[in-house]
Every structure is written in structure tokens, then in C-alpha cells.
Write a sequence for this structure.
């Protein structure tokens, strides 16, 4: 097995795990937040179905200072309100959201980086 095959295999496993975390976070946390009248409108703009899951995870994963900056920007309607979400989620919900969000970001960036390295010729035999 070549090095690139090993890395692609790891990337596929990480992507599958990220998909499982996406569904778990959506079913456990975001479903609860959608039903709550206080948090229903605090999940941000939903471009496509399920995007509010990513918005909620981002609000729970980002440091509070960065979330405040995003919420004061002119495009604040796009982002979820982190203060409202933190007040209405448990510690497990926040952990699950952070784990899902950062795993999604790392997996996506790793895939792009792997393609870049392969195109440059790093993995040539």
C-alpha cells in the first residue's frame, strides 16, 4: 500500500466519522433547539437543509470573543447566536458540537491539502 493510499483511507474514515457526528449532533441537539421557541430563530440563516446544524456547531465551537465579533458584523443574520445557544444547551451538547465542527474543518482542509500535495508530486514513488 502506497503512502497516498494510506492517507486517503484515513481521510475516508474521518469523513465517515464526521458524517456520523453530523447526524448525531443534528438529532440530539439541533432538534431540541428547533423545538424551543427561544432558540428557533437563533440558529442563523439556513442556505440548504441542515445548514443550521453547522451554524449551531460553529457557534458552540468558536471562542466567545470571535462569536461576539461575528454577531456584531453586518452579516450577523447568517450566524447562530452563540450566547442563546450556550444558555440552552448542556455540556454534552457543546462538546458534541465542538467535536463535530472541528472534525469537519480538519477533514475538509486535510482533503484539500492532500490534493494539493498530490498535484505538486510529493507522493511520487
Amino acid at each position: 500500500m502506497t503512502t497516498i493510499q494510506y492517507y486517503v483511507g484515513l481521510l475516508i474514515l474521518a469523513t465517515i466519522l464526521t458524517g456520523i457526528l453530523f447526524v448525531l449532533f443534528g438529532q440530539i441537539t439541533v432538534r431540541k433547539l428547533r423545538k424551543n421557541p427561544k432558540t428557533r430563530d437563533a440558529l442563523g440563516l439556513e442556505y440548504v437543509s441542515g445548514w443550521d446544524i453547522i451554524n449551531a456547531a460553529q457557534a458552540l465551537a468558536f471562542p466567545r470573543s470571535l462569536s461576539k465579533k461575528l454577531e456584531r458584523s453586518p452579516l450577523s443574520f447568517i450566524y447562530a447566536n452563540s450566547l442563546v445557544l450556550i444558555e440552552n444547551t448542556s455540556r454534552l451538547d457543546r462538546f458534541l458540537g465542538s467535536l463535530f465542527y472541528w472534525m469537519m474543518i480538519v477533514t475538509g482542509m486535510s482533503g484539500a491539502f492532500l490534493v494539493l500535495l498530490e498535484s505538486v508530486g510529493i507522493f511520487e514513488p
Notes: Helices lie at 3-35, 51-61, 64-71, 82-87, 91-120. Residues 3-119 form one domain. The mean pLDDT is 92. Residues 30 and 53 are 6 Å apart (CA to CA).
